[in-house]
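MODEL INPUT / OUTPUT PAIR
PAIR INDEX: 1
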Amino acid sequence: MLKVRRIPIDTYPENTAFVLRHGNGYSPEQFQALRKIRISCEGGEILATLAIVDDDSIIGADEIGLGEQAFKRFGLAEGTSVTIAQARPPASLEYVRRKIDGDVLRESEVAAVIRDIAHHRYSPMEIGAYLVACAGFMSTPETLALTKAMIDVGNRLHWDSPLVVDKHCIGGIPGNRTSMIVVPIVAAHGLLCPKTSSRAITSPSGTADTMEVLANVDLSEAQMKAIVAKEHAVLAWGGRVDLSPADDVLISVERPLRLDKHEQMVASILSKKVAAGSTHLVIDIPVGPTAKVRSHSDAVRLRKLFEYVARHLGLVTDIVFTDGSQPVGRGIGPVLEVRDVMAVLHNEPDAPEDLRDHAVMLAGHMLDFDPALEGGKGYARALEMLASGKALEAMQRLIDAQGRQTQHFEPGVHQAEVKASRSGRVVAIDCERIARIARLAGAPMDKGAGLDLLHKVGADVQAGDALYRVYANAEAGLGFALDLAQENSAYEIS
């Protein structure tokens, strides 16, 4: 028997256990055989990857340490006595091997794989093998089976309304922070719009990261329901309420491998929207040379896949192709994006026109779901909610309901400008590279880090003019960002 000890090490997303190499009845050779172990007691069990410790000041011979994730998931107090044993490989790994060989898996087999992934029974290598096999070939029925399985292993929210609207952009366009404008517009009109969003993984900011500059986004299910009942909306982080948890595990492996196949994207997005209780969904697919979708034909194929899966899930969709040729707005990174969002909501004359127009268009599509609104009047109604100030009022009420942010954030104290190397006209901006530069500056973890774009496509510039300003709160972050920008500024000047 070993006693549980909490080890304050973040091992996300894995469960990791720590034991001392000597003095506990196991030999180093046995530990090699116990690469993954089952930790159990009367209160339950958990599977964890084993890490060996050689310093007895970290953990005692009679203890087993659990990293932050494993300790939280196990849910037992420190000092609880547990036993360890070799963890048997999940039976569903046989289905992964078949998928590697090119087989099409049945719905029950896909469900078994996703269930084991959600319960952290797979190593990152095993998850990677499944994802790469799926990236090679995945049938449309398998995509539907994957989506259903991801919904089933997590929590589902239920709302007392037959019409629950939402929107989602497939991503890849820096500054595209339309949700923080769309949601208050829709709420001001009176439709139910409980918006749960993820934090950024490879982008400079997600909706949750940006909204956190203004308000608390780490809300429980009970808090979310109370806010939605009062304000018709919420802008919260979805991770707190355990929506499609398998997706978070899959994404943690997909991103380092730079896997972003359409089938996995569709399953990821629709599983979380159905789990969040949405009945009607607007999907924004930006199309552009450096966007996730780079041609109209690819956009059409993706739209058809969304429609097929959504139809079988009973989810009504409206899929919109938008301009993904350059970043949206001027600010890239949480604080700078909030500045742009609030400028639009305040109807400031110098607010970014592209952000305002994009948000109003998407809000119009969402309002067109309202049976009480005459067909085609959604856009005009959305514009009315914004121009009248009602959307701003709805946003302020939402911020108060979620809890205003007590910490004040400003753009980073370290700043530098990236300048044009030649005179001419800006003909293209590389969205992917802009995002990477902002990430290196520290966004989104550093709320004040990011880029302020001073020129967009179509602007005439002179050699030496500043194209954008980089902000960071760490000198190292600023240096990393500038090094990448000096290799290639992301601006093409004709």
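PAIR INDEX: 2
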Amino acid sequence: MENRGGFGSAKLPSDELKTNLEYIRNLFTGDETIQFRHLTSPYQTDWRFCLVYADGMVNNRIVNADVIRPLLEYRFPERPGDPAEFISQHVMFSDGSEKTAEVEKIVQGLVYGDSVLLIDGCAEALVLNTKGWAMRSIEEPESERSLRGPREGFNESILTNLSMLRRKLRTPDLKFHYRTFGRRSRTKICVCYLDSLINHDVLTELEKRLDDIDIDATLDSNYITEIIRDKTYSPVKTIGSTERPDVVASKLLEGRIALFVDGSPTVLTMPHLFIEHFQADEDYYINYVFASIGRMLRILSFFVSISMPAIYVALVTFHQEMLPTPSLLSIITARQGVPFPTALETLFMIIVFEMLRESGARMPGLMGQALSIVGALVIGQAAVDAKIVSAPIIIIVAFTGIAGLMVPKIKGFVIMMRFLLLGFSCVLGIYGYLLGVIAMLTALFGTSSFGVPIMPDVYADDAQDYKDIYWRTSWKKMLRRPKLLSWNHNRQATKGKAK
């Protein structure tokens, strides 16, 4: 793609204030939010300045108190050899001040909430930290609510998000590395990890993939996800995502890497294991016995959600002899008068359920809940009364949908596998279903996230390898970090796993 929006190594054209101002004005032609505030020292009239900033992006109190007021009240001496350095060290109250002549840094500072001070007789400018745009307050994420544990979630400010993570992990071992993506958006991202715990091969692979990114704008973390993921067209997630600081901290303590994107409350974590879809934040804030029961129910719900329609169609269409006689007679009676075959009515009702679920999610608050409940009751009952579908298929689809709601983190994969297994069952019956399950498991065991297999070992030589997979053991027995994520010296006893 054509590379536009960058300035390369261009510098301010002159040490004359008038020339530099004209240059900046030409860059922002048509942008009426860029403000120019001309200032002259009342004590030394040969000290002339112009403060440039983007209206609405700066904190006006900081601009007035820490920039304009010191410039007007300071008794300037005779002009020194480096006016910008002198003002930065002796005049400015701003907590951040960078001297530069590069147009790229000046422009990025302006559009990101900094103020730029141009000085007459100086070919360099001061980029001052005056950020003050409005942002969403810290609150619990709607999609990751928990009855126990912290109630804070990330917002759209990368600096706020990093501060919340720093408060969780107060150690110099926590590393932050900034990068910028998007030729036009110039979005800042930050790669975070605990240096003594990560697998450096994973970090090297991540940096290699980030280096290959070439995109016009990065408006959300999913832009990065789609580019750096392992398999572009695979429905299986190989990069995790969360809006909770405690979850990110726990991932880092297991040896993972987190990626923050400015403007997005969603933080990416990698490598990502398949079992993470069934782990809930609350599992680590309640008794491990109840947490284990809940996790096994989620795993069971996953298989129920993808399998129930396919098994029903296979039994009713191809293998009636496998059904108990009373159940078979009941299904035959309920299907009398229904003009469509079992496979078609099952497919139709699954599509209708997904339409109701999606419309309920998109509608505002209480209206969406009412639409989902009323729509399901009215349409289901009317379809049965009109003999368009049979009553058993309503029960099957409803139970399938409820089971799917227990694993929202893997919604896309569940929907795709549900249709895939249904298609196999429509053609080959129960053998088609089994073939589809084998194909799914083969694909899962063959998928990796940044070189790390997403599925656990089938045969484990140590009970520690299963301590937090299908169930959660007690904290006293969590002695080692995950085997797949850590390197050799991390497999030593660590007395407690941070989650």
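PAIR 2 NOTE: The first strand starts at residue 34 and ends at 40.
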